[in-house]
Amino acid sequence: xxxxxxxxxxxxxxxxxxxxxxxxxxxxxxxxxxxxxxxxxxxxxxxxxxxxxxxxxxxxxxxxxxxxxxxxxxxxxxxxxxxxxxxxxxxxxxxxxxxxxxxxxxxxxxxxxxxxxxxxxxxxxxxxxxxxxxxxxxxxxxxxxxxxxxxxxxxxxxxxxxxxxxxxxxxxxxxxxxxxxxxxxxxxxxxxxxxxxxxxxxxxxxxxxxxxxxxxxxxxxxxxxxxxxxxxxxxxxxxxxxxxxxxxxx
Length: 250
Known about the structure:
Blueprint: E1 2-6, H1 10-23, E2 28-32, H2 35-45, E3 49-53, H3 61-71, E4 76-80, H4 85-93, E5 98-101, H5 106-119, E6 132-134, E7 137-140, E8 145-148, E9 151-152, H6 157-168, E10 173-175, H7 176-183, H8 192-206, E11 216-219, E12 223-226
Parallel strand pairs: 1-2, 1-3, 3-4, 4-5
Antiparallel strand pairs: 6-7, 7-8, 8-9, 10-12, 11-12
């Protein structure tokens, strides 16, 4: 496991390196102090995950993230001294997988890293659920693929997991906390900004309209409902019939 830490503070780099390697013996930490160096190392070193500070001396972290997303889906966790909702939303909108505010506890950072890698694990057990089909949309859970009008949708692993939970429970309201827990993990049950950003991204890729939805309807104060033929009415219960048996996607 190779992790690229991008920060211009040598003390932060050494502290994170020591703290993470105490928890994870097989972890190799490489470092970059500028945005330009970071982009070069993402291409040349192919890290498994990037910890990216927002405040860099040459290019800010958001610009670096934008460039990273032009050529790779390598998971990126943003590090910043600012913990305002607008900062979190901006990073997530640009393609960050998570956001950790400084100063942070090394155990918390370690947990966040593990959560991101768990969500993106390409070696997860094969999902035997039958494929879902509604109108122009097809979702193949076993192949981790979705198609719209027969064309493959370019979904990130997290976007696919969100779509999978929604379509498995088509017609039912899936509460916000349940979506966050099943898609991101128990540590994220209160991170409502994450869900709003990813719902917006998923709607864009489905060519859906929040005001006149064909697929994903916001149920104010409750959660989200995937609309399907024969779907339950808006007044139906929030708990899907398979809630207890639904596969754990953490």
